[in-house]
């Protein structure tokens, strides 16, 4: 077998926040540590730069460039060093990688974090539909974006999806099922581990980007009704609206912590009694998986990718048609035996299904398989 050399592409990279940024940074270092020649191409708000990070060659193209220039620079950077890059692992920069693939013979694996067409439409206020409702209803520029995004996936030799739900969506875009593998998102189970020495500061905690579909407004309302302390970790365009909502609630005790360093998150989770992810859409949510690894009693919404992580009443609770968010919170606050059972189930699930070492090896096998 030819020597494995990998280029990872992503639209975000630390200090940017988000699942793709965390994955590309973490996986590239893991891959380099196994002896694989590894490099990263991404974007930055600062000036363009080339650097080395823990044995990984990182090239960052500035977002200060006008879009056509930035697009061209990224596409050329992906296509240019083909003699040195055997496989491209695409976790972002999908259209730029599509162009590079058209003009080259690069081997390509796409790791799809979600439906980026729907996400951009929601972020831009162009739709209020759920991700499933939105399928086939793209209009104008988003219809073209869907075509190009799907085209980029069609050019891939293999596709990795973090959940069955997302796999089925990708199939609905016209991609053959046999090209898609489901490999769950992962957690460092040694870093995210229970620590009983940490005292509890918060009744409830949520960790997410503050955008409308995350359902943080409902969580604030339910915690306020019950006089519970709530920690909100994360930032985003909805933060000011959520802060105003919290200020207008009687009996409200909400602490907005913003973005915090990832290394500090385990201690914060350990200082909270219950984890809630009230999102109306998730693929395979990192924050929920990290909470399970801590051994937290967690609540997430049914009919989302979270339902593939949570087995109701075994390693967490699902809210929705079965029971409301408020009822789920009440159930946990009143039943310490249930909390203890869910905590044990949560930790066991993380170790068995979401361990970083296990799933990173699975991704590496996919990369080796397309050589």
TrEMBL record:
Pfam families: Glyco_transf_4, Glycos_transf_1. One of its GO terms (molecular function) is glycosyltransferase activity. Keywords: Glycosyltransferase, Transferase. It comes from the Bacteria. Residues 18-190 form the Glycosyltransferase subfamily 4-like N-terminal domain. GO terms for biological process: carbohydrate derivative biosynthetic process. InterPro entries: Glyco_trans_1, Glyco_trans_4-like_N, Glycosyltransferase_grp1. Residues 198-347 form the Glycosyl transferase family domain. PANTHER family: SULFOQUINOVOSYL TRANSFERASE SQD2. This is Glycosyltransferase.
């Amino acid at each position: 077998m030819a020597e494995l050399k990998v280029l990872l592409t992503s639209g975000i990279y630390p200090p940017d926040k988000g699942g793709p940024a965390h994955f590309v940074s973490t996986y590239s270092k893991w891959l380099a540590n196994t002896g694989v020649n590894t490099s990263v191409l991404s974007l930055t708000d600062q000036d363009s730069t080339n650097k080395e990070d823990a044995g990984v060659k990182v090239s960052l193209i500035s977002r200060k460039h006008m879009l056509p220039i930035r697009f061209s620079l990224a596409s050329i950077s992906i296509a240019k060093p083909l003699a040195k890059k055997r496989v491209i692992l695409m976790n972002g920069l999908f259209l730029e990688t599509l162009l590079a693939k058209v003009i080259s013979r690069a081997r390509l694996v796409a790791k799809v974090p979600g439906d980026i067409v729907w996400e951009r439409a929601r972020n831009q206020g162009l739709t209020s539909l759920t991700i499933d409702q939105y399928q086939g209803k793209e209009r104008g520029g988003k219809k073209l974006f869907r075509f190009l995004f799907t085209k980029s996936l069609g050019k891939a030799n293999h596709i990795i999806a973090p959940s069955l739900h997302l796999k089925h969506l990708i199939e609905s875009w016209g991609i053959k099922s046999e090209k898609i593998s489901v490999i769950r998102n992962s957690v460092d189970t040694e870093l995210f581990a229970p620590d009983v020495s940490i005292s509890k500061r918060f009744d409830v905690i949520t960790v997410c980007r503050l955008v409308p579909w995350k359902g943080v407004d409902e969580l604030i309302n339910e915690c306020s009704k019950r006089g519970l302390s709530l920690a909100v970790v994360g930032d985003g365009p909805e933060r000011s609206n959520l802060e105003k909502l919290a200020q207008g609630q009687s009996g409200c005790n909400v602490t907005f912590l913003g973005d915090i360093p990832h290394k500090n998150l385990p201690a914060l989770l350990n200082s909270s009694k219950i984890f809630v992810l009230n999102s109306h859409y998730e693929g395979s949510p990192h924050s929920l998986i990290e909470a399970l690894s801590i051994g937290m009693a967690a609540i997430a919404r049914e009919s989302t990718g979270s339902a593939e992580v949570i087995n109701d009443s075994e390693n967490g609770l699902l809210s929705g048609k079965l029971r409301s968010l408020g009822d789920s919170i009440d159930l946990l606050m009143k039943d310490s035996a249930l909390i203890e059972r869910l905590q044990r189930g949560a930790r066991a699930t993380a170790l068995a299904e979401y361990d970083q070492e296990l799933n990173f090896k699975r991704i590496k096998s996919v990369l080796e398989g397309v050589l």
